[in-house]
Amino acid sequence: MAKIELKDLRVSFGASPIITGVNLSIPDRSITALMGPSGSGKSTILRVLNRLIELYPEAKVSGEVYLDGQNIFDMNVLELRRRVQMIFQIPNPIPNLSIFENVALGLKLNRLVRGRDELFERVKSALEKAQLWDDVKNRLDMPAGKLSGGQQQRLCVARALAFEPEVLLADEPTANLDPENTAKVEALFLELKKEMTIVLVTHYPPQAARVSDYVAFLYKGQIVEWGPTKDIFTKPRHELTEKYVTGRLY
Ligand SMILES: Nc1ncnc2c1ncn2[C@@H]1O[C@H](COP(=O)(O)OP(=O)(O)O)[C@@H](O)[C@H]1O
Ligand SMILES: [Mg+2]
Fold first, then answer.
1. For residue 88, how many other CB atoms are within 10 A of its CB?
2. Which of 25, 83, 92, 248 is the most exposed place for a label (fewest CB within 10 A)?
3. Is 41 in the pocket of ligand 1 (CB under 6 A)?
4. Cα-to-centroid distance, 218 and ligand 1 (Å)
């Protein structure tokens, strides 16, 4: 069974239809790239998957989304967002808060840990999984804003992982990083997919080709083509897909 299943998802903002009937299966323990030009609706779909879309009063959503077979709109939204974490294009740690507290805060606010020792272990484990522990273990009290951009993004991954999520949504997570830090984040995702489902939004086909197992190519609010990454890049079935992966469609 798919980890996430979208059935005839439609989203409009006010009178403008933005997502116009998306069906998609997202397999567990793999990376699915949501790929498409700017404005095609990639971020909107991600915002549906953790119901962040509900923060936009003008957004109307219809259709169904299932997580492990359960309709996400029937779930407790806080529990959904614990299980389905998200990271963004611009790393958004709380800059004045320490590295440790950035990861610890959500666990404390949501009373997910008992006592200081368990909190420390959870924070350490999240930083290790985000491949940041060795960089920061001697300066956990330093404000997060002093880290480099690449480190801040991995801190945001650590903050997400602290919740022990099943799904990680990543919205163009390397768009603001240099090639070296981009490579680090991509390597990290390849490691993380062994234990979770990753939905990676990208408008950059080479990134989808490098890291994803499946690609859904989105264009103007619809999925033009979906399939194993290799097929999308080597034998696309639609002309639009072929144009996009060869850099002839923006
Ligand atoms: N809150 C909003 N109100 C109105 N239109 C929006 C809103 N958010 C996004 N849109 C529009 O929806 C379309 C898809 O946006 P988005 O999902 O951000 O695309 P992508 O992430 O693929 O660049 C765009 O045309 C955008 O202008
Ligand atoms: Mg976007």
1. 18
2. 248
3. yes
4. 13
Rg of the chain over CA atoms, in angstroms? Answer: 18
Which residues on neighbouring strands pair with residue 71, listed in sequence order?
66
The rounded Cα 225 to chain-centroid distance in angstroms is 20
Q: What is residue 250's predicted lDDT score, i.e. its pLDDT?
A: 81
CA of residue 41 relative to chain centroid, distance: 14
Q: Which residue puts its alpha carbon closest to atom 13 of ligand 1?
A: 39
Distance (Å) from CA 179 to ligand 2 centroid: 20
Q: Does the C-beta of 221 come closer than 6 Å to ligand 1? A: no
SS3 134: helix
181 lines ligand 1 (CB under 6 A): no
At the fourth CATH level, the homologous superfamily of domain 4-245 is P-loop containing nucleotide triphosphate hydrolases (3.40.50.300)
Ligand nearest to the CA of 39: 1
Q: What percent of the chain has pLDDT over 70?
A: 100
Closest CA to ligand 1's atom 18: 43
Domain boundaries, the chain: 4-245
β pairing state of 16-26 and 4-13:
antiparallel
122 token code pair:
């959870």
Confidence of residue 75 (pLDDT cuts 50, 70, 90): very high
With H, G, I as helix, E, B as strand and everything else as coil, classify residue 155.
Answer: helix
pTM for this prediction: 0.96
Nearest-CA residue for atom 2 of ligand 1: 13
The answer on pLDDT for 220 being more than 90 is: yes
Q: Is 20 in the pocket of ligand 1 (CB under 6 A)?
A: no
Ligand closest to CA 172: 2
